[in-house]
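Table 4 source record.
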Amino acid sequence: MRTYVVAGGTNGMGRGLALHFLRRGDRVTVVGSDPARGRRLLDEAAGLGAAERAAFLRADLASVAENVRVIKEIRARHDVLDGLVSTAIRHFPRRVETPDGHEATFALYYVSRFLLAYGLTGLLERGENPMIVNVCGVGVTKGRVHWDDLSLKQGYGGIKAMLQGGRATDLLGVAYAANHPDARTRYLLHHPGFTDSGTDNLKQPARTVVRLLARFAAQPVEKAIAPIVELMDDPPGEGGLLAYDRRRPLDPSLPSLDPAAARRLYDLTGHLLRL
């Protein structure tokens, strides 16, 4: 029996992966912000005969303190982890600032994934074949990190914030692998492609537009998670970092995977979080 944590696991691809792990007999802790969705997931786990192997932690992953609490609770519950999967993301059409002073997209898409990855490394290193999976937009080169304005106080836009979060998340994977050259834990950046993950987090008119597009162009969650499961169960080659667009490995020399930029962002993040 393997043990997994899925951050953002009450809907979309996170939910799909959590249920996949439960069906095959693994233990899963799901982290999410909506208690109603958490209860539905636990009910579904019970229907699979997996009630004792499923747990839900309610947390606002845009909050640094909440991420720290989640890390502490997971450490108290488990001695080992085989995988950490991060899928939590939300579109904010208007700028929202967290109590920590971070722009909310950056906090959820990047800062939370940074904290969980580094905070749970000790447990992952005890796993049989451990992997951190970051579901993101790797391979996309649009957008950039706004080094002098990470919180986007000047000229905020929802798409601009999402693109910055994506590029920061790419660099997170590069920096993590560089900071753990001898680690057993692999780090997978995975771009699943357009997936029908639901539209509950979107506001109108974006919700209607995405629903229409999903009806004709999006792949189902079950198809989107299949390459991730394959890579987790049988990771190819050597080295800490894997970057894939669906089943296609990406060129590590992409400008969005620049090691110098990754180090710069890591150092800046440590300063922001006072690490």
